Amino acid sequence: MRKIVAVVVTAGLAACDTLPAAGPLSSQIEGQAGKSRQELNRPNASVFDTVDVDQQTARTVANFSNSLFSRRFGIGGRAGRVVIGIGDQLKISIFEAGSDGLFSTSQSKQTTIDVVVQPDGTGTIPYVGPITLAGKTQEEARKAILAKLVNKAVEPDVLVTAAGTASRSVTVSGAVGKPSNVELTLAGDRITEVIARAGGPASEPYESYVTLVRGTKTASILLKSLIENPRENIYVEPRDQIYVTHDPRTFTILGQVEKNNRVPFGASDLNLLEAIALAGGGSDNQGDAEGYFVFRYEEPEIVMDVLGAKRFHELQSKGLVANKDGRYPIVYRFNMHSPDSLLVGQSFPIKNRDVIYAARHPTVDFLKFMQLIATPVGTASGVRAVAN
């Protein structure tokens, strides 16, 4: 009888991998982590790594998520030396001391000329001709024009004012009240100020994402984070592009939980424990307390921080690649057997589109196998007895 049981147990363990199942075991996830496509013998396999989350890891992820803009773009500052650029509209007022000058009459001793800076950086003024304006401050342009008028006008003086600063504008589009090109002030403008001048966000701050594109760099952050973290509300620069999108945040929870589902946040912030509770909690009978995972495409800076630069580059050589948004796949693992997991779970933020997976306990597959082989010849109680 013992030999028969041993054969059944051995066959059951071997057959567990072929049984119907709701996702991988913890051991299967760990077994694929860090493996190359060649090692997995799957040419299109996704290369990723797992990270056991402790308090330090949770704090690293949370802090970086709240400082993405300032890290990637720097704080910036108010405008320094503001110069005239191509496309700018200038009002050039020329004054003369006498009434019989080039620009004066008996009724007025001044003339105002509208000038648009051309693609070659010049503007044309009567009796002066083309003059280079791009790259000059308004005072430098004033002096350059004045120098050209000497010996032509009667004791001339010049005033240059900006009527439009197309060269010093940012584009604000998407879910805002009035998508437009917003011209920057000399005092300097922060992201929220520019969005406000474009009509403000069309949705609540905790459902609105702000994407900043500057040259070859891009990053997205929740508008709520800009409001709550002043360091993130950085100064914009000419030719920045700002996109505001309305994206109600959701996460997906799968595995041994009350209900596999896509769940809306229902709040401005959500940590791991709150997310699991929101989905109905885990299964006491079939769940693996050591196998709670968060699958995420993470910012490259965070991946390098939690894995280390050496491990990150090693995985890249094995086929780790970013998605279309420049983020890399990573899997965070939580051991709910550990008492401090309740503290770690409160510190770990859930992000939009996260997938939370609660793995089943390894014995679940064995019990399924025992039920399959025992049902034709016995009763359910017999299955339980054999399992015990």
UniProtKB/TrEMBL annotation:
<feature type="domain" description="SLBB">
    <location>
        <begin position="251"/>
        <end position="356"/>
    </location>
</feature>
<feature type="domain" description="Polysaccharide export protein N-terminal">
    <location>
        <begin position="82"/>
        <end position="161"/>
    </location>
</feature>
<dbReference type="Pfam" id="PF22461">
    <property type="entry name" value="SLBB_2"/>
</dbReference>
<feature type="signal peptide">
    <location>
        <begin position="1"/>
        <end position="21"/>
    </location>
</feature>
<dbReference type="InterPro" id="IPR054765">
    <property type="entry name" value="SLBB_dom"/>
</dbReference>
<keyword id="KW-0625">Polysaccharide transport</keyword>
<dbReference type="InterPro" id="IPR019554">
    <property type="entry name" value="Soluble_ligand-bd"/>
</dbReference>
<dbReference type="GO" id="GO:0015288">
    <property type="term" value="F:porin activity"/>
</dbReference>
<keyword id="KW-1134">Transmembrane beta strand</keyword>
<keyword id="KW-0762">Sugar transport</keyword>
<feature type="domain" description="Soluble ligand binding">
    <location>
        <begin position="170"/>
        <end position="215"/>
    </location>
</feature>
<keyword id="KW-0813">Transport</keyword>
<dbReference type="Pfam" id="PF10531">
    <property type="entry name" value="SLBB"/>
</dbReference>
<keyword id="KW-0564">Palmitate</keyword>
<dbReference type="GO" id="GO:0015159">
    <property type="term" value="F:polysaccharide transmembrane transporter activity"/>
</dbReference>
<dbReference type="GO" id="GO:0046930">
    <property type="term" value="C:pore complex"/>
</dbReference>
<keyword id="KW-0812">Transmembrane</keyword>
<keyword id="KW-0626">Porin</keyword>
<keyword id="KW-0449">Lipoprotein</keyword>
<keyword id="KW-0472">Membrane</keyword>
<comment type="similarity">
    <text>Belongs to the BexD/CtrA/VexA family.</text>
</comment>
<protein>
    <submittedName>
        <fullName>Capsule biosynthesis protein</fullName>
    </submittedName>
</protein>
<keyword id="KW-0998">Cell outer membrane</keyword>
<dbReference type="InterPro" id="IPR003715">
    <property type="entry name" value="Poly_export_N"/>
</dbReference>
<keyword id="KW-0732">Signal</keyword>
<dbReference type="GO" id="GO:0009279">
    <property type="term" value="C:cell outer membrane"/>
</dbReference>
<dbReference type="InterPro" id="IPR049712">
    <property type="entry name" value="Poly_export"/>
</dbReference>
<dbReference type="GO" id="GO:0006811">
    <property type="term" value="P:monoatomic ion transport"/>
</dbReference>
<keyword id="KW-0406">Ion transport</keyword>
<dbReference type="Pfam" id="PF02563">
    <property type="entry name" value="Poly_export"/>
</dbReference>
